[in-house]
Amino acid sequence: MATRTEKDQAINELIEEIKATNVIYLTDASALNAEATSNLRRECNKAGIRMKVVKNTLLEKAMERIEGKDYSGLFPTLKGQTAVMFADKGNAPAKLITNFRKKNPKPVLKSAWIEEAVFVGDEQLAMLTNLKGKEELIGDIIALLQSPIKNLIGGLQGSGGQKIAGLVKALEERAA
Length: 176
Prior knowledge:
Elements: H1 4-19, E1 23-28, H2 34-46, E2 50-54, H3 56-64, E3 82-87, H4 92-100, E4 108-114, E5 117-120, H5 125-129, H6 134-158, H7 160-175
Antiparallel strand pairs: 1-3, 1-4, 2-3, 4-5
């Protein structure tokens, strides 16, 4: 049995790991043999995902101690064996789990916490795989914003300076 000091140290380490990310997946990887578990850890490392098997009670205590964030939606899924995946991209663990399960029955998604949104149940996996990351969304927005500007510039360039002069004159008249 771990001492109170060891438990506190484990909780503090979890607090630091949780605070360092906005993407947390809780999975059940029990029943994977040693080789499959090693392969899962290797795949996580390659994808920049930190995986850690934790005691449910310690994880819940760590989450409760973090101010300003509500992880309580995950608490009902803290049963049985729990392997936590910490990532930078919201869809990275979902893609990894989906690919890994082509050859293995697990890990099964218990729940996920992504940018303060809670997702519960393995049936969420397909949707989470298609979730766009912050960078992808910013890229989409920039592309959408550039489109009308390109059309405007194209229209102005196509008709020469006469249209610009006409627009300026119309604006001056409206202002007067």
